[in-house]
Structures are given as C-alpha cells and as structure tokens.
Q: What sequence folds into this?
C-alpha cells in the first residue's frame, strides 16, 4: 500500500513512546535487543528512516520482536505489510470488519490506513463527528464509568468506517476518531486513574490525528501523554513530551488559549516534579499569552481550559511552593469564576483549599473544604478530586483525634464512599 507521506503509524508510535527522533529509537533498539536475549543486533538512523518511508521493508523476526516490545503494537499496527500479502493480517481484518473485543479486556482497535474500496456516503463523517461532539458534552455530567465504554465503542466504529471513507470526509472522520480516543484517554487518566491504559489509548488518538493530518489535535494528545510521566515525577520524559507537543502546535494555527494551556500542562508537570519556581514562571507566561491574545480561534474540542482553570493550576502550584496566602486568594477566586458545568474541577479546587488550610494548621477549615469536595464527588465522580481529599487527610494526621477529623474519616470511609472508590 502506498503512503505518500510515509509510514505515519510508526512515526506516531515512536513519538508517543517518547522517542522524539529517529536516532532515539535506533539507540533504544540497540539497548533493548540484548535485554531480550538477542546478541549482536543493532540498527542506525538510516534503517529507521527506511521503516518510516512510504514502503517500509518487512523486518526479520528478531527485529520484529524488538520493535513490538519497544512500541507495544503489532507489526501491522506499526504500518508494516507482511510479504505474503494482507490475508490474515490485522489491517485486512479491520477492512473486512473487525471483531470487537470485550470491553472488560480494554483492547483497542487499531487505527487503519486508507483502503482501496470506498463504500460509505459522504455524510458518514459528519454523522460520526456529531456523536463525538455529543460525547464531549456528556463528559461533564455523565459518570465516567458509564460514558467510557460508549466512547470506546464509538471509536471502534470509527476504525471500521475509516478505510471505507474517501477524502475530504476521511480526514473529518479521522479527526473525530482522534478526539474520541483523546476523550477516552482523558477519562482513563483523570477520572479512573488508569495511566497505563490511558497511555495506550492516547497512542491510538495520535495515530488517528496523523491520519487526519491535524497538528493541533496531535499537539493536544502529546501534551496529555506528557501528563502521565509528569504526574509520576519522571521529569525527563515529561519534558520530552512537551517538546513534541509544542513542535506540533507550531505546525498549526494555535490560538493564544492553546499556547497558554501548553504552558499550564508543563507547569503542572514541573510542579509534580518539585520545580515550583519553573512552574510559576510558565504560568506567568501563560497569563501574558492570554492577555496578548491572537488572531487564531481555539478548536471547539478544547473545552477543558479557560482563564479560571489556568488560575486553578496557579493556585495548586502556589500551594506546593508554600505560598499559602497567595494560594488561598487565587483558589477562592477560582471557585467564584468556575462555570456551573465545571463540577469536576470544583472538587479539585475544594481539595486544594483544604490542603492550604491544613498546611496553615487550620484543621477545621481544612475539613470543611474536604466535606464540600466529597459532597461534589457524590454527584460527579472524579478520581483526581478524590486523590486531593486523600492527600489532605494524610496531612491532617497531627489532628486525627480532633472531632472534625474524625467526622471527615466517618464521611471518607462510609459505606457509599468506600465501595464507590473501590469499584473505580
């Protein structure tokens, strides 16, 4: 199969796995081969360039073993065609009609490349896009465990439709598919706290964005991917992810809001890695960027960011930096500015305000904010918000015999909250 722009699947998988250059993948390949018991096997940039060409050669068995181990996908999913033809390959199976794996196994459909046969009407892309848009709106109120399976099934449908759709509808459908996988990855990471699964899902999103040739979607996906090592305190991997995200953003008409959000993401990663001074500098830059503005519009799918949410990032960083009065003032203003649909963000702000009061040796005020967070979590579950409450409870250990802390424990470990947390 010809690929005028090269093997975009392998390129997307390489970048999503943290190898931002062909040299980085070649070096990782050479390091990994001995770990798999394969001696004397090494590749250079020239070989990686051939793999990412429009007609990549089918590698030898040991090479295939190392590649699939590094990138976590089959050779067909990485854009390679076996020399015996497509029969029996996953790509052909996808075109004939993929078998849908049970959702309990959390298996993801591969993002297919263009097929020769085009049988879908021109309206199919807009119809699929409309459902994707509805899922985007439902995210803010529907329970994540309820919405997540529907989003994944919709993405599987998109994978089945993509080879049967011609341009320009194909690019529209691929962009909507990328957005669906991005939403699924966001739910997995922020709502369900499943970072490993989110990493796999975001890789699918990046593949779809590559099929759509949408650099802004690619940038947003890569920035979300950077959250995963950033929250784990893996600074180097987070920085590499953000370099890739900013590179993609420069290729598209990024708005001031989009650039500010990238600053905010990097600031949160820096905060999680203990670099609060760098984080505050990034937030200051984001505020300046928003104040300056730009002629470009923010994509409709980017509905998770606003000046109020930038301020929420700032309040959390001020808290971690020990600037308690500033953090308190910032977070109180955020509560007043958040729109009604921001219930998930509101639980995080309540949790941060509770942490501010606990750090200031004000246990009653801290418990009061923690109670408000739990009240909101009972309406709209958000694992990130619950994490904030648990962090606050750990800091309240010096006052654990106080009645307010005992009352918080009774609420935090009542039947409903405990079962709900364990289910998720």
A:
């Amino acid at each position: 199969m010809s690929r005028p722009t090269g093997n975009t699947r392998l390129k997307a998988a390489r970048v999503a796995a943290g190898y931002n250059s062909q040299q980085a993948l070649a070096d990782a390949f050479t390091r990994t081969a001995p770990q798999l018991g394969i001696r004397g096997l090494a590749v250079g940039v020239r070989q990686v360039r051939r793999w990412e060409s429009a007609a990549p050669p089918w590698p030898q068995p040991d090479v295939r073993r190392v590649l699939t181990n590094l990138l976590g996908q089959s050779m067909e999913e990485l854009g390679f065609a076996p020399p015996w033809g497509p029969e029996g390959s996953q790509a052909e199976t996808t075109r004939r009609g993929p078998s849908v794996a049970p959702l309990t196994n959390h298996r993801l459909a591969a993002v297919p490349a263009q097929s020769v046969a085009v049988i879908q009407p021109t309206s199919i892309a807009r119809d699929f896009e409309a459902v994707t848009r509805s899922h985007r709106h439902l995210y803010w109120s529907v329970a994540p465990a309820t919405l997540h399976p529907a989003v994944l099934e919709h993405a599987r449908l998109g994978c089945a439709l993509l080879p049967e759709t011609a341009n320009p509808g194909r690019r529209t459908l691929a962009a909507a598919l990328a957005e669906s996988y991005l939403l699924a990855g966001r739910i997995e990471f922020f709502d369900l706290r499943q970072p490993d699964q989110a990493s796999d899902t975001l890789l699918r999103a990046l593949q779809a964005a590559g099929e759509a040739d949408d650099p802004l979607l690619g940038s947003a996906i890569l920035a979300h991917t950077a959250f995963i090592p950033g929250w784990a305190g893996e600074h180097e991997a987070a920085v590499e992810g953000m370099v890739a995200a900013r590179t993609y953003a420069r290729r598209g008409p990024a708005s001031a809001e989009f650039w500010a959000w990238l600053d905010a993401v990097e600031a949160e990663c820096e905060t999680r890695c203990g670099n609060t001074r760098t984080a505050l500098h990034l937030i200051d830059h984001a505020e300046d960027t928003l104040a300056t503005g730009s002629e470009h519009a923010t994509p409709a799918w980017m509905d998770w960011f606003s000046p109020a949410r930038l301020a929420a990032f700032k309040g959390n960083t001020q808290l971690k930096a020990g600037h308690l009065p500033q953090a308190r003032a910032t977070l109180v203003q955020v509560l007043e500015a958040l729109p009604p649909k921001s219930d998930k963000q509101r639980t995080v702000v309540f949790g941060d305000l509770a942490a501010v009061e606990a750090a200031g040796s004000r246990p009653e005020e801290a418990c009061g904010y923690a109670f408000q967070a739990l009240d909101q979590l009972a309406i709209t579950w958000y694992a990130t918000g619950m994490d904030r409450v648990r962090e606050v409870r750990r800091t309240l250990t010096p006052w654990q015999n106080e009645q307010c802390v005992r009352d918080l424990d009774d609420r935090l470990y009542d039947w409903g909250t405990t079962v709900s947390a364990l289910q998720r």
Summary: The two ends are 43 Å apart (CA to CA). The mean pLDDT is 87. The longest helix spans residues 169-191. The chain is about 65% helix and 0% strand.
